Amino acid sequence: MMETSRQIVIWMVEDDADYRATMSSVLQLSPETSLSRSFGSCEEAFAFVASKEFAEADEPVPDVMLLDVNLPGASGLESITQLKNELPGMAIVMLTIRNETETIFSAFRFGASGYLPKDSPIDEILDAVREASRGGTLMPALVAGEVLSLLREAPEKDYGLSDRETDVLREMTLGKSQQAIADALFVSRHTVNTHIQHIYEKLHVHSGIEAVAKALRERIV
Predict the structure, then answer these.
(1) Is position 3 within any domain?
(2) Whether residues 135 and 181 fall in one domain
(3) Helix/strand/coil (H, E, C) string of 52-71?
(4) Helix or strand holding residue 84 (H, E)
(5) The pLDDT of residue 206
(6) Which of 26, 113, 162, 207 suits a disulfide with 132, CB 3.0-4.6 Å?
């Protein structure tokens, strides 16, 4: 358990400079917390962790990272695993402007410890940081039941997806647009759209939301 005499060291990855400044002020309100680093993108955070400056700095690995879901470049969701691998022991609390059940579910599957709406009251923000630093998990009450139901083990089923269709579906669970998926897989947007239509047919769904929900619920990807 963390000693109460030591501050909770926090890093933040958030592309909105105004929100970063606001959060910095909020976190200074508590003697328990210290926002020691903030970045505008995951790429900036990765570059710093790999830098000589960080290697030679006498500073601890952060206890908690506040990570925006939607970021330029690599999204928060797709960066969770790498961030946790490069900064072992760090808890991640996702920041979002909307409570979307499937996105929250994805965040927890990838290793996030919490999920926090950006407009949360100050007390809730500080509580979230404290809870995450202790190894706890938290999520918005409005979606907790739905997320927990998705987290229950579901029977596996082979829907006959090709390797490339599985790749596309995995990218869809990260909330990427068709163009972003095309860029990630080095194919055309038309090719991605064709794969998505095949995915719909094989999963017996009619929309991207349904496909992602089924993929996560049944652990297809």
Answers:
(1) no
(2) no
(3) HHHHHCCCCCCCEEEEECCC
(4) helix 76-86
(5) 80
(6) 113
